[in-house]
Amino acid sequence: MDPRAFTLVELLVVIAIIATLIGLLLPAVQSAREAARRSTCQNRLKQLGLAVLTCESATKAFPPGARTRSDWSIANNSLTASGGAIDHGVWSWGALTMPYLEMQPEYDQTVAVSPDMQVVIDDAARRPILQRRLDAFRCPSDPGPALNENRTMQNGHQIAAANYVAWNSGSRGWLKGETESESNPDRRGIFCINARTRFKDITDGTSKTFLLGERTIATFTAIDGSTLRCTGALAHGIRWQRNIGNLANNPNRGQSNAMGLGRGGLNSVMQVNDTPFCALGAFSFHSGGSQFTFADGSVRFLSEAIDQNVSDFTINSVFERLGAMADGQAIGGDF
Fold first, then answer.
1. Would you place residue 81 in the very low, low, confident or very high pLDDT band (cuts 50, 70, 90)?
2. Alpha carbon separation from 286 to 68, 74, 131, 197, 234 (Å, rounded)
3. What pLDDT, on the 0 to 100 scale, is given for residue 317?
4. Around Cβ 31, how many Cβ atoms within 10 Å?
5. pLDDT higher for 39 or 30?
6. Does the N-terminal or the C-terminal CB of the chain have fewer CB atoms within 10 Å?
7. What are the residues facing 259 on neighbouring strands?
8. Could you tell me the strand order of the sheet in which 299-303 lies?
9. CA–CA separation, 55 vs 50, rounded Å?
């Protein structure tokens, strides 16, 4: 036998050492990749926040969570006769902010075509514009598809999925013109349908009020083995509902298509009748929590262990207070 050759035992030892090294290095590589993805996600939330703040500076108001046609209205806890067609598409804050995201061509081909989103959805030549993947609205940690198959528009049309939501409330959905919402103004967030929120309305302080949050599109398997479908959001609009309860709080339609509600919690795995709370709130694939843009433009990572009590509609936890812009309750520490 050639004395310079490996014996079978030596070869097996070398293979075992290489396998051990790979096993040690792989988690580190995966961790580094996730850190890079999380950093990109943070930067995109920052850029979206700056775009929203620029919009406020230019128009003297934050963009509404969604904007209806001028002949639609909400009053006295029910939609009026001219309250719009059920399942009709309505432009949301994402589409209205595009001119401030260096996305003027997309805006010109969609929102500028008609104030009625359904006109663009029903146009077979223009619909593909609404179906383009928009990286500015996507977190790279989420492997979800380009189109949101769980939040379809009228006639089953699918449009671009998004990970980022504008914050609507500290608790249950807040809807201007709805009697129940108007009687509980303390839970209102910066964004709601047809709102014109200004900085002076954020009396709790811009550094302690949510502007934007994130929500996963891809399914997630919880520790107990259950499958969660938080269903992300839509980049361009919401699916209008004539039923005011659905418009305000439905996990698959209405405001939740583009807005976050405190009732949904942060990385919550709660489900009621197979409907996950996370479809209303915030959820991410980042380990241990989720990222938020605040009204001062800063982006912060919040732990899923944050004080949150979403079992009722009262603003009585740190997470809920951060979602409400004028509840008047103090928030101490770094939460």
1. very low
2. 34, 38, 26, 30, 20
3. 94
4. 11
5. 39
6. N
7. 166
8. 259-261, 164-169, 210-214, 289-294, 299-303
9. 8
What is the signed CA dihedral for 252, 272, 163, 107, rounded to 10 degrees?
A: 20
Q: What is the pLDDT of residues 294-335, one digit of tens each?
A: 999 999 999 999 999 887 778 999 999 999 999 999 887 777
DSSP at 155 = G
Name 197's Cβ contacts closer than 8 Å, sequence gap at least 6.
Answer: 61, 62, 190, 191, 325
Instruction: Evaluate if residue 192 carries a pLDDT over 60.
Output: yes
Q: Which residues contact 229 (CB under 8 A, 6 or more apart)?
A: 150, 219, 220, 276, 279
**Burial class of 331 by CB neighbour count within 10 A (0 to 12, 13 to 18, 19+):** middle
Distances (CA, A) of 112 to 91, 96, 115: 11, 10, 7
Q: Give me 236's structure tokens.
A: 């361009």
pTM comes to 0.88
The mean pLDDT of 234-256, rounded to a whole number, is 90
